[in-house]
Design goal:
Elements lengths: L7 E5 L4 E5 L3 E6 L7 E3 L10 E6 L7 E4 L6 E7 L2 E8 L8 E20 L2 H4 L4 E5 L2 E6 L2 E8 L4 E4 L2 E9 L3 E10 L10 H16 L9 H13 L1 E2 L4 E2 L22 E2 L3 H11 L2 H15 L9 E2 L10 E2 L13 E2 L10 H15 L8 H15 L18 H20 L7 H18 L1 E2 L4 E2 L15 H4 L7 H14 E2 L2 E2 L18 E2 H13 L3 H12 L11 E3 L4 E3 L5 H19 L2
Length: 594
């Protein structure tokens, strides 16, 4: 079993994604969508919970691996005593059914290769019935069906509740495997040509990556992050999942294991800004349109997250048959945080739609009416305590970041009316709200003795989200309170040169046992804040260290443990990659933006 989260690479088709380990095993794949049940769940269990490994006979881990430049096509190479072999993994853009294509190519000598496929539907809990049909191995259980074929055909047999193949490739010889999922009640979908799929996938990804306007330092890392965000996009709707995985632990052996296969409103402004600035207006518009559809309805019912198509019911459930990654249980699907009140999301929605309008994205007829409705709700609800940005489970508080984002909502509403006189709204009332919130935050959320804003009113605890205060315009970067807050957060929440979200060990609001690693998005925010407060050299040094945390194929999880030297949390994490892109644009935008 792959022992580290960073041992994995990502492939996907913009509707779901798979994780491929250094040992050549696909250990995680949900079909047909990101949030569907997994047919490979070895990531959170063992081989009997489903996986598909292709590797030379007797081999352990690969010699090297890399994405083909500017693509999501993965090449993994092994060197053996008999020769060398490459496995190319991809998920081509689907027309109807999702396909996983794995092409084995001999590089030198003659190498014996083995394929071991164990399909286990519903997160490893259901063993399918397997039969032969039309040159395929067909696995069926309930609503799920998967068809496996090889071109050319190779010796294949069933053994130990798995499907095995063994064959030899010489230099220049290729064998392609295609695994296709479809609903079991439907006829088999049309076959794809795996070699044509490879060529078209490489061409399509390179064409997309070529649209990136950024051409400054760390361009490869920026493009890889943008490709990752594209891979985490659910193409039919434009929604972007926070990660393709569930329950990868924030602390090995701990209980901070959450399902991130959904779309969070908190990510909307930062994601939209990254896409627009990097030159991806079409993707930004699709994300904006997903946002409008998802939040439509009663503003009092606004959720912090939604399903990839805007679904609202994301009930949290535990899967007791899975022991979890590194024994980190429970394994969860769904997320009960969906029912929390987080006032900051109103600010993030207003900020996103303001940014979209200012950037020239085509407006929607109902967009401003919805924004006015959000503001009417905030006028009466903004004083309420909430669970805050970090979805704490220890009770509601008057979180300072939440109030700052209420200010953002009012500020963006005011500025929209000031710039667009054709729109109507309560300009005077929203100005009063903006001023009142600002005054209260500065009075109740600021510790004069320590010269820092605090996590919630009256507390002495700090929160890395307060680093966003200058970014959203609540106070200018040179305000002494901003500089003091940046310094206090770096001193109190610093962790071996990176940054934690808040103090989880001694927190009275967290509601969960145990701690976690350095939070990568917050560490990128620190780099932004250092730059904005005039410490650009320090900011660039921190950014360089953060980019250095990417694994060998350029991917980041949610967190990093600097003591153990490993990544933590769901992987790859959109929030981390958005942070990388935005910080690169902040630090080098004038030199690198096209």
């Amino acid at each position: 079993m792959n022992a580290r989260i960073e041992d994995y690479a990502l492939i996907g088709d913009e509707q779901t994604a798979a994780l491929v380990g250094k040992d050549g095993s696909i250990d995680w794949l949900c079909l047909p969508r990101f949030d569907s049940g997994a047919c490979f769940a070895r990531l959170l269990g063992d081989e009997d919970h489903g996986h598909w490994r292709i590797a030379p006979e007797g081999a352990d881990v690969c010699a090297r691996r890399a994405y083909r430049p500017d693509t999501l096509v993965l090449d993994t190479e092994w060197e053996t005593a008999d020769g060398a072999v490459r496995v190319t993994d991809l998920m081509p853009q689907r027309e109807r059914a999702p396909d996983v294509v794995r092409i084995v190519e001999g590089l030198s000598g003659r190498v014996t290769v083995r394929s071991t496929l164990r399909l286990r539907f519903d997160y490893g809990s259901i063993m399918p019935w397997v039969r032969r049909a039309d040159g395929h191995r067909v696995a069926i259980a309930g609503p799920d069906s998967a068809w496996l074929r090889a071109e050319p055909a190779v010796p294949t047999w069933g053994e130990g509740y798995g499907t095995h193949s063994e064959f030899t490739v010489a230099a220049g010889e290729r064998v392609a495997f295609v695994l296709t999922w479809h609903p079991s009640h439907e006829r088999r979908p049309p076959l794809i040509d795996p070699y044509e799929a490879l060529e078209s996938s490489v061409a399509d990804w390179r064409c997309w990556a070529g649209r990136c306007r950024y051409d400054g330092p760390y361009r490869d890392a920026v493009v890889r992050s943008l490709i990752t965000l594209k891979a985490l996009t659910y193409a039919p709707t434009g929604g972007i999942v926070a990660a393709p995985t569930t329950s990868l632990p924030e602390k090995p052996g701990g209980v901070r294991n959450w399902d991130y296969r959904y779309c969070w409103l908190r990510d909307s402004t930062l994601t939209l800004g990254a896409l627009l600035t990097a030159g991806y207006q079409e993707e930004a518009e699709a994300w904006r349109d997903w946002l409008l559809r998802a939040v439509a309805g009663n503003p009092a019912d606004l959720q912090i997250m939604y399903g990839v198509a805007g679904e609202r019911r994301l009930r949290e459930t535990e899967l007791p048959w899975l022991p979890g990654f590194a024994g980190s249980a429970p394994v969860r699907t769904g997320n009960d945080a969906v029912d929390q009140l987080q006032l900051d999301v109103y600010g993030e929605v207003m900020d996103s739609l303001s940014l979209a309008r200012a950037s020239g994205l085509p407006t929607k007829p109902h967009m401003w009416a919805m924004q006015r409705s959000l503001m009417r709700f905030l006028e009466s609800a903004w004083r309420r305590p909430d669970e805050g940005l970090w979805e704490v489970r220890g009770g509601r508080r008057q979180f300072v970041h939440s109030k700052v984002m209420v200010w953002v909502a009012a500020d963006r509403a005011v500025k929209t009316l000031e710039r667009h006189h054709e729109l109507s709204g309560d300009l005077a009332g929203w100005r009063r709200l903006r001023d009142e919130v600002h005054r209260e935050v500065c009075e109740k959320g600021y510790d004069k003795e320590r010269n820092t804003f605090t996590q919630y009113y009256g507390s002495r605890e700090l929160d890395a989200a307060l680093l966003l205060i200058p970014r959203v315009g609540f106070l200018p970067p040179d305000d002494p309170r901003v500089v003091g807050t940046v310094d206090a957060i770096r001193d109190d929440l610093g962790h071996c040169g990176f940054l934690r979200r808040y103090d989880t060990e001694d927190s009275v609001i967290d509601g969960l046992p145990g701690g976690e690693g350095a939070f990568l998005a917050c560490s990128f925010w620190l780099a932004d804040a250092l730059h904005m407060t005039g410490r650009t050299q320090e900011a660039r040094a921190l950014f360089d260290r953060l980019v250095g945390l990417c694994n060998d194929v350029g991917l980041l999880a949610e967190e990093y443990d600097p003591l153990a030297g490993c990544q933590l949390g769901n992987f790859p994490q959109a929030f981390s990659h958005v942070g990388l892109v935005n910080t690169a644009l902040t630090l080098f935008g004038e030199d690198g933006a096209g």
